[in-house]
Each structure stands twice: as C-alpha cells, then as structure tokens.
Amino acid sequence: MILYNVTCNVEKPMADEWLDWMKNIHIPEVMATGCFVEYKILRLLNQDSDDQGVNYAIQYTCDSEAVLERYRAEFGPGLMAKTWERYGESVIAYRSVLEIVG
Predict the structure, then answer these.
(1) Dihedral over Cα of 96, 44, 40, 75: its sign
(2) I need a labelling partner for 89 at 20 to 30 A (CA). Which of 21, 32, 53, 56 fits?
(3) Rounded to whole angstroms, how far apart are CA atoms 43 and 38?
C-alpha cells in the first residue's frame, strides 16, 4: 500500500474555512477519482505559539504506485489548480509518497 501525504500550512484566518472546504468539497472530489481507498485528516499539535499558520496532513491511501501515478497524471493537476484558485498563497502544500510496510 502507498500513502500519499499532503502537508498543508494554512494561514490562521483561513484555517476553519479551508478545513470545511477540504472535508466537504476537495476530499470528496479526490476520493471520487477512485484512486484512493481511504484518507485521514490530521492537525499538528506541537506548533510554536508564534507560528503564522495551522499545519495539517491529509493522508490518502492507494493500492500501488501505478495508481498514484495515474491520479497525479489524470486528476492531480486540475484539483491542485482549484485549490490554488481558491486559496492562492494562503495555503502552502508539500507532498510526499510513502510505502506502508507494517
């Protein structure tokens, strides 16, 4: 199994609205691609009090690297563009791919 992790730093004034949008719009669109079998939303707890943003990790699980590559080629660019259009630089995202080994 492959874990596709998207870590997001969201400006504090946007955090609640962004999280609602992720739960009700964006993640359902990602899951509707059929590429992922499950997801989790996590919020980083040990942030510095002077940090300007709220940090989240969205973790999507898929069956193989081939499925992830299909998602990245066919669906990822359009879904990332929607996020950029809505939030611009208010949300900075970093992506990583991990193999679940246990």
Answers:
(1) negative
(2) 32
(3) 17
